[in-house]
Design a protein that fits this description.
This protein is an alpha+beta fold. Helix content is 26%, strand content 33%. Strand 6 and strand 7 form a beta hairpin.
């Protein structure tokens, strides 16, 4: 982490604290959290003037940076840019950006603290969820007279690619606000303050000109005072703009309370976790907020998920703050996992609204699309091919998790039409094409041209399985059976056609000649996400992807940095996307490769706490830890790739609403001994789970907190291949269980019902063992330097564990251990005892010009029978 971040949660009276900004208590993580555990989030650190800062709602947004320069939007209308403050005191005019010292961000607001020699000003940006405007609070504390001046440049235009004709502004003395308008008087905005005075408007003459509009807020002689700036807009004329302006001006205390309450209720109503890792805990909570902040209500197009936010500067394109098909669909999988079915349904309704007549799903819908022939004259509307299979997959995931069978019936014709379009793109081998149809993941660059990406073919196969399930749920059994057969056939073809046996990896794509393109890419983890690939082959490729040529400390490169086509700044041929990192994490957990999976989950989580606080950026350099200069700092599907890897990946959570079954299959880090989960859904039931482990026992407490029907919990915790399960008890009585083993670990599988009361499950275990790494971000602008566990290989008798490691040449690292008393000796490393437990220190050998080196460590364990005899003697 580049700078110290303070993260706090407020006490029970948190709504009032949101107004008074009172002192906060530190966040804690407990296995059995108190009932009031949902307390608001806060992150704080010294200001980084270049970092993105925002306050957004469904109808408006303030976008800027931590220096305090902002632009304002009431979608799809841009109001102004380069908003900033100046302080008048002691005969001097001080630009606020030179005094920005501290940043505080909360779900409902962003705060900059400015400090001068004799004064402090706390500027709070608030955009209430459903209001067409914003409020800026200025809390002043000064020893001598101080006056604040607000300045901005009018930039009154519709979002790209639409435009307005002539626009103008003037000062309305009754409202104490600048009126921004255009010739039809349909689009209107007001910017002012109840205490505004000494306005200066823009002007242009033959001799001089100024584009700046400004007003002062009245002098604070000495002491404390609060000032208010109000921004409001309307797409329906002046009366609506004035109504919003007056509402925001007079009701701001309640509006601020309700804005904080909006996020409190959202966090209360979705899946909450209490984790031993405070940073992942914070990142998960903030990522839930980030995702729901992607919902935008455009009155001309409808309500849907936008892709992300970034300042537009002098243009009319605010990052990716328009609607994207595949962005919404990937994000929906995280929303479903978190139990936010309402937002998923809204996103799916929006995307399906713009389905093309032939069944193809939309790629991009600009917020100005209703003003231009977007789908006819612009090439972006249906540019991608992957949105179509993703739509089928996303609808099935939503219906399966939520139990909304009515939605499946309502959308059956739509998903069937999408399938018909998908089939129309099949090549002679039966793979969905990209070339001539629409791009898969890669939109341009040296990885093209190709015929069909492995990514796209994997999605095409999974779409068959998803459609088969939707057919079954809607009573179309014959169709379901036919689609199941097609899926089984297609899954085998995908595994065979893309597998390169001599390289032990999957090809990036099939070329235009139909032959595999040998470029090993993280995109292969998308078929892994859905469990489509052969276990042995997938694991072999994961070992390659886990090395430092693919996996940086901040996430996954799209291709190896050893590739001739690699460039660290290549948008589609070398950069790091948190999206890729999330795909990899979920896929790796699916195939029981928990070490690289955890490295990728934690990389994304740490990004949420660095950069633009609380947000995960769109794309970073593949060479150095820093976002690309064109990255959108608040990217919605990047936030989703904290949520999905945690819930779907590490915790292995999934639900079947129809059978009221919840599956919990965790692959936990070695040093995690407890966690808590609430608001888990299983049909109409809600469940609370508390997990704990010791060296001899794994326990799970399950309680139904809502619902009226019996539900089933299937608990499948991962343990090491060395471990032995002695017995399993439910509420003190033995229950049956089974073991499922693979080359990486084994799972204890227990099913039990939860109705009234609590259920206490205990799994008695011997000789479990775990190992892990401590992962962190490097200094900003640095190269990757962390340790990677490439593979773990057990001997047939499970008395030896070989670790293949990769790291910086000459560097020394520490590995954490769980239950290390079993270790007899270690080859290639040293076991050391510390107050918090035993660690293994390992040195990476120095190498030539390579940025990373490799080594092997072999851990030898004491004989199990010998240890048992010693215990008996003692």
């Amino acid at each position: 982490m580049q700078t110290e971040i303070t993260s706090r949660r407020k006490s029970v009276g948190w709504i009032l604290c949101a107004l008074s900004f009172a002192a906060l208590r530190p966040l804690t993580a407990v296995a059995n959290p108190p009932a009031e555990k949902y307390q608001p989030l806060e992150l704080s650190r010294p200001v980084r003037p270049w970092e993105f800062l925002s306050a957004v709602g469904t109808r408006a947004g303030l976008l800027g940076n931590e220096s305090g320069r902002m632009e304002a939007w009431v979608y799809p209308l841009k109001l102004f840019r380069d908003f900033r403050l100046q302080f008048h005191t002691g005969g001097r005019v001080l630009p606020a950006e030179s005094l920005a010292r501290t940043l505080i961000t909360r779900p409902e607001s962003s705060i900059i603290v400015y400090t001068g020699d004799t004064f402090s000003v706390r500027e709070t940006y608030v955009v209430r969820a459903n209001e067409p405007g914003a409020m800026i609070f200025l809390e002043v504390e000064t020893e001598q007279p101080l006056e604040i001046e607000a300045r901005f440049l009018r930039d009154f235009q519709l979002e790209w690619p639409a435009a307005l004709g002539g626009t103008y502004s003037f000062w309305d003395k009754d409202l104490r606000a600048f009126y921004l308008g255009e010739e039809t008087r349909k689009f209107v905005a007001l910017v002012g303050s109840p205490t505004a005075a000494e306005d200066r408007g823009e002007y242009q003459t033959n001799y001089s000109e100024s584009a700046v509009n400004s007003f002062r807020l009245g002098s604070t002689p000495k002491g404390k005072e609060t000032k208010l700036i109000v921004i409001a807009g309307s797409l329906e004329g002046r009366p609506q703009a004035e109504a919003a302006y007056r509402r925001l001006s007079t009701g701001y205390p309640e509006l601020l309370r309700s804005s904080a309450e909006y996020y409190r209720k959202y966090l209360d109503d979705t899946v909450s976790v209490e984790l031993p890792d405070v940073q992942i805990q914070q990142a998960y909570d903030w990522s839930r907020v980030s995702m729901v902040q992607g919902i935008v209500n455009n009155p001309f197009l409808g309500t849907g998920l936008v892709a992300g936010y970034r300042t537009s500067g002098e243009s009319q394109r605010p990052g990716f703050a328009w609607f994207f098909g595949r962005d919404s669909l990937w994000t929906s999988l995280a929303l479903n996992a978190a139990g936010d079915f309402a937002t998923t349904r809204t996103a799916l309704q929006f995307v399906s609204k713009y389905q093309r007549e032939d069944g193809k799903m939309p790629h991009e819908i600009a917020q100005g699309a209703s003003f231009v022939p977007w789908f006819k004259d612009f090439p972006y509307g249906y540019a991608s091919a992957d949105a179509t299979p993703l739509y089928i997959i996303a609808v099935d995931d939503y219906v399966t998790e939520s139990g909304d069978i009515a939605f499946a019936k309502e959308k059956w014709d739509s998903v069937w039409k999408a399938y018909q379009f998908l089939r129309s793109t099949y090549d002679e081998q039966g793979f969905p094409k990209n070339f001539g149809i629409g791009h898969g993941w890669v939109e341009g660059g040296p990885l093209l041209p190709i015929k069909s990406e492995f990514y796209q073919s994997g999605l095409g196969a999974e779409a068959l399985r998803a459609l088969s399930n939707l057919a079954r749920l809607t009573g179309k059994d014959a169709v379901a059976a036919e689609l199941t057969q097609a899926f089984q056939k297609q899954g085998g073809k995908v595994n065979e056609a893309f597998w390169l046996a001599d390289k032990q990896r999957y090809a990036f794509a099939l070329g235009t000649d139909g032959k595999p393109v040998d470029e090993h890419s993280v995109l292969a983890t998308v078929p892994m996400w859905f469990g489509l690939l052969d276990q042995k082959n997938a694991s072999a490729m994961i070992t390659q992807l886990a090395d430092l040529d693919h996996q940086t400390d901040w996430g996954m490169r799209i291709i190896s940095d050893r590739s001739a086509k690699f460039s660290g700044g290549g948008y589609h041929y070398g950069s790091v996307w948190p999206l890729f990192t999330g795909w990899a994490s979920v896929g790796e957990y699916r195939y029981h490769r928990s070490q690289p999976a955890y490295a990728n989950l934690r990389a994304n989580a740490l990004l949420a706490l660095d950069g633009s606080l609380g947000h995960v950026t769109e794309v970073l350099s593949g060479d150095y830890y820093q976002p690309l200069s064109t990255s959108s700092p608040h990217q919605i599907w990047s936030a989703a790739m904290v949520v999905s890897p945690l819930l779907r990946g590490m915790l292995g959570l999934s639900a079947d609403a129809k059978t009221a079954t919840l599956t919990f299959a965790p692959h936990l880090p070695a040093d995690w001994s407890s966690l808590g989960l609430e608001n888990l859904r299983a049909g109409d039931n809600r469940l609370q789970l508390n997990f704990m482990k010791t060296s001899e026992e794994i326990s799970l407490e399950a309680r139904r907190t809502a619902g009226s029907t019996e539900c089933i919990v299937e608990f499948r915790p991962a343990i090491s291949l060395r471990a032995t399960v002695n017995r399993v008890e439910l509420n003190g009585k033995p229950v049956p269980f089974r073991m499922e083993a693979n080359d990486e670990d084994q799972h204890v599988v227990v099913r039990f019902s939860v109705a009234e009361g609590q259920k206490f499950l205990r799994i008695y275990v011997s000789n479990d063992f775990g190992i892990g790494t401590t992962l962190s971000l490097p200094p900003l602008g640095s190269i990757s330097r962390g340790l990677r566990i490439l593979s773990e290989t057990w001997s047939p008798s499970h008395d030896q564990l070989a670790l293949d490691l990769s790291g910086s040449p000459g560097a020394q690292y520490e590995l954490k251990t769980w239950n290390s008393a079993q270790i007899r000796k270690i080859d290639g490393a040293e076991l050391k005892k510390k107050s918090e437990g035993s660690i293994i220190t390992v040195q990476i050998p120095s190498s030539g010009a390579e940025n990373y080196g490799r080594t092997r460590v072999v851990i030898h364990f004491a004989d199990v029978q010998t240890k048992a005899k010693r215990r008996q003697k003692s």
